[in-house]
Amino acid sequence: MTISTSDRRAITSHPIADVLAERWSPRSFDPTAEIADAQFTTLLEAARWAPSASNLQPVRFIAARRGTAEFDAIVDTLVGFNQVWAVRASALVVGIAVTAGPDGTPYRWAEYDLGQTIAHLSVQAHSDGLHVHQIGGFEPQALARHFGLADTLVAVSVTAIGTRGDAAALVEPYLSREVADRQRLPLDDLVLVFA
């Protein structure tokens, strides 16, 4: 049985760019799809060109494709329920915030800048026919130990990247989440002041 997730366009209250309205975060990745060097590098290049406070660029990445020891090491740090589906992604990217400069000065906006880089990567991926799913459920200390990250390099997220697969391959509760209506809070709930 194949379950269609082809039309997942956001129903917005105001028009937004197609690349944003059509972007969504599947868990059903095609376990046979591969990501080529050039395509993977393009995603990281898009991330590199995200805005950065004072142009400090306090971000780093661990980028690994399925089939590598690095990919497997990242999967091992994922909380169990994320391992179930993320192992099928073509690649995983760990987003790392550089929290302080060489002289110890804190980089207050590091996590904000990192979020921008992953947003740019996500939009580029969608533009290139790929999908991403950002993951917060992982063990940052285990990941830091495995990759020898310094104390000022803080793993904030893991992003699964790949080609969408058949949702029927998912087990519950992931299947239900995959086909559920997309929802966001109303804009009026998010905007505190609009002058």
TrEMBL record:
Domain of life where this protein originates: Bacteria
Keyword entries, A-Z: Oxidoreductase
Domain Nitroreductase: 21-69
Keyword Oxidoreductase: yes
Pfam families named among the record's database cross-references: Nitroreductase (PF00881)
Signal found in the keyword field: no
InterPro entries found in the cross-reference section: Nitroreductase (IPR029479), Nitroreductase-like (IPR000415)
GO MF entry, a single one: oxidoreductase activity
PANTHER family: NAD(P)H NITROREDUCTASE YDGI-RELATED (PTHR43673), NADH DEHYDROGENASE_NAD(P)H NITROREDUCTASE XCC3605-RELATED (PTHR43673:SF10)
UniProt similarity note: Belongs to the nitroreductase family.
Name of the molecule in the record: Nitroreductase
